[in-house]
């Protein structure tokens, strides 16, 4: 499924652990809940960037479109949840996003560049996980997750292109830095299942 997106596959440090895929299949109610939260957070992040960087024309264009698409995805997930009588509950955030964002540099444009690189990893990982789950889900969810691949892959590209555009230097070293962090966050065990958690802890 991801063969159409070779740059995305190469960008990520690893595939999602099989143990995480099995954990997701055992917790589909929680999967839908956290997926909805992720789409809403993604839209909120895009809007926040638009407010913070009002002088970045290409960013405004790409983030505006991204925010609209993420809100549509939220509506689609929420519709599926309502159809299945799945309550939309408050959830604690996974360690994934914070584990990446705490390493964002504080001066500009480095802060913006790091934020864009992290956005690329989040979107790429979401795309990879939808593809990993789709073959194992019921027909409705499988079709829905497959339908998200194209937009998630484009969001990955948008974030990566913006990182390159606004950086004063090549971004390869920062991408490699965050790739190492991302691999640890994806492969090290977690106690709570989330869309971007690691595999289940054996404890």
UniProtKB/TrEMBL annotation:
It comes from Marinomonas alcarazii. Pfam families: MiaE (PF06175). GO terms for molecular function: tRNA 2-(methylsulfanyl)-N(6)-isopentenyladenosine(37) hydroxylase activity. CDD domains: MiaE (cd07910). GO terms for biological process: tRNA modification. InterPro entries: Ferritin-like, Ferritin-like_SF, tRNA-Hydrxlase_MiaE. PANTHER family: TRNA 2-(METHYLSULFANYL)-N(6)-ISOPENTENYLADENOSINE(37) HYDROXYLASE, TRNA-(MS[2]IO[6]A)-HYDROXYLASE. This is tRNA-(Ms[2]io[6]A)-hydroxylase. It comes from the Bacteria.
């Amino acid at each position: 499924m991801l063969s159409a997106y070779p740059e995305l596959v190469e960008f990520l440090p690893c595939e999602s652990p099989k143990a995480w895929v099995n954990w997701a299949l055992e917790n589909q109610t929680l999967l839908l809940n956290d997926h909805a939260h992720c789409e809403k957070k993604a839209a909120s992040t895009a809007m926040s960037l638009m407010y913070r960087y009002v002088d970045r024309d290409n960013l405004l264009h790409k983030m505006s479109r991204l925010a609209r698409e993420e809100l549509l995805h939220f509506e689609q997930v929420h519709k599926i949840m309502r159809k299945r009588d799945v309550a939309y509950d408050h959830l604690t955030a996974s360690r994934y996003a914070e584990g990446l964002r705490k390493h964002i540099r504080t001066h500009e444009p480095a802060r913006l560049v790091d934020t864009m690189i992290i956005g690329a990893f989040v979107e790429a990982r979401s795309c990879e996980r939808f593809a990993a789950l789709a073959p194992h889900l019921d027909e409705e969810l499988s079709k829905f997750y497959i339908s998200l691949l194209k937009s998630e892959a484009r969001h990955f590209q948008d974030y990566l292109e913006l990182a390159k555009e606004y950086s004063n230097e090549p971004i390869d070293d920062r991408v490699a830095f965050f790739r190492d962090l991302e691999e640890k966050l994806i492969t090290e065990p977690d106690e709570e299942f989330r869309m971007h958690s690691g595999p289940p802890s054996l404890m």
